[in-house]
Amino acid sequence: MQAALLMIVAAFLFATMGVAVKLASALYGTGEIVFYRGLIGTLMIAAISRWRGVPLRTPVPAMHFWRSTSGVAALMLWFYAIGNLPLATAVTLNYMSSVWMALFLLGGAVLLGASRVDWRLLLAVMVGFAGVALILRPTMAQNQLWHGMAGVLSGMLAAMAYLQVTALGRAGEPELRVVLYFSLGSAIAGAVTAVFEGFHAHSWRGAMLLLATGLLATVAQLMMTRAYSIGRPLVNASLQYLGIVFSFFLGVWIFGDPVTWMALAGMALIVAAGIGASRLRSQAAPQSNRPTSES
Question: Does pTM surpass 0.90?
């Protein structure tokens, strides 16, 4: 399958996973959903790693720990936002990660004493945050500001996780091992959180939603990983934003999410800023074939 098609299908599967998470949020706590998502992912990736002969032992456990810490925190905040906000709003705020990475790049340049700052990156960051302001306006009107801030924080932490994934790639860690330890960290953190939230009894509907969440997330992550390994990173990064479009239509169709001009304008600004930031970062640094997926 071609890289572009893999990215499109992966974006749709992630959007569909968001639907499963939102439906499951009515039956389970965030910790439980993260736990089952991580457990299913761990089992699937462990089986694939064994089949492909990829060893599970890692020479850089500390790097995996910090990547998992930021990634799992981002995942929990994102799932929490999905359960309490319109689906496309929560997804879009998480996709702000590219803009956050541009901001980190600008901050690093300033701290290192760069004589000049790329004004195009600065413009992309400003456009991205203008989009966030437009998206958060309806949430403030509906007293959902904390839920919106959780989505914003998920994007920031996801950006940190992506940077750590890049560092793991440069250290020679295979993609399957990176995904495995992230899934394992999700299962552990989710279980600990669920102990405090309280576990809920299962129904057939709830169990199917949890299974769908884990399967869709893992398959989408593998497809996105494959797309980044064989395709052009900038094209993949651009196609990834189709997840926002899919989430918008699924949210309106399934949940009756409201359609407002501010939300649509905010999404458009964030997509434009994210694609622009990805293009500028690809020019400023060596390309990485690592996927910026889920968290």
Answer: no
Residue with tokens 């701290």: 111
Q: Which range is most confident: 9-18, 172-181, 253-262?
A: 9-18
SS (H, E, C) the chain: CCHHHHHHHHHHHHHHHHHHHHHHCCCCCHHHHHHHHHHHHHHHHHHHHHHHCCCCCCCCHHHHHHHHHHHHHHHHHHHHHHHHCCHHHHHHHHCCHHHHHHHHHHHHHHHCCCCCCCHHHHHHHHHHHHHHHHHHHHHHHCCCHHHHHHHHHHHHHHHHHHHHHHHHHHCCCCHHHHHHHHHHHHHHHHHHHHHHHCCCCCCHHHHHHHHHHHHHHHHHHHHHHHHHHHCCHHHHHHHHCHHHHHHHHHHHHHHCCCCCHHHHHHHHHHHHHHHHHHHHHHHHCCCCCCCCCCC
Residues counted in the chain:
295
Q: Exposed, middle or buried by CB within 10 Å (0-12, 13-18, 19+), for 280?
A: middle
- The model's pLDDT over 36-78, given as tens digits with 9 standing for 90+, comes to 999 999 999 999 999 999 999 999 999 999 999 999 999 999 9
Burial of 130 (0-12, 13-18, 19+ CB in 10 A): middle
